């Protein structure tokens, strides 16, 4: 998703984001349905994912989205999937991008729901919805774009996902860990091991993160740490870069700059100068 989406989802009173809770049958799979009014989406926008895979649909069926991956432009259509570690990927809209409908999935159950490999995002972090639902995505999109209101679109999406549910068993401890990380985004793998003591060993942690989430625990924690640092920088805080780095679990500002270059291809200073100039 455009990184501006994550600027808004943690602001409950923000009028650019509407969150609709999923029905009980979907709560183990879907974190929430969102309508994102992308009024500030213009020019090149950094694409990012916070570890929770999403399916995003543009407002108009005839719309489309282009992404730039290390200088190569790729068309991903009006409905796409996004997840994993997005590095130096930017989006360029075409057509009407006044709003997106976003389905945000719990990471531990997303892959099982669509019966896809957990490493699917390893080499391709953004792709067309048809690639993971080739048999029923076309019918879903027909129904979705025929729906005349947000409530009806939610119903269409819920019906589409409900038909995919089967008996999916995820380790309870993994769910606990994900919730713990959400509440404490500055943790390290060592902190997790210490917090859970004898209940957790590193081999189990590494194996189950890759099995159910598709990335390592270290990579998952990196996404959280970077996103929180990005929010602090974007908020025009009076704090120095070093203070923001330390507040968000980095050992110094050089490590934050290094991560910023990995995810955006630019230093924090250059990135925000370009965005504010735009």
From TrEMBL:
<feature type="domain" description="HTH araC/xylS-type">
    <location>
        <begin position="175"/>
        <end position="274"/>
    </location>
</feature>
<keyword id="KW-0805">Transcription regulation</keyword>
<protein>
    <submittedName>
        <fullName>AraC family transcriptional regulator</fullName>
    </submittedName>
</protein>
<dbReference type="InterPro" id="IPR018060">
    <property type="entry name" value="HTH_AraC"/>
</dbReference>
<keyword id="KW-0804">Transcription</keyword>
<dbReference type="Pfam" id="PF12833">
    <property type="entry name" value="HTH_18"/>
</dbReference>
<keyword id="KW-0238">DNA-binding</keyword>
<dbReference type="InterPro" id="IPR050204">
    <property type="entry name" value="AraC_XylS_family_regulators"/>
</dbReference>
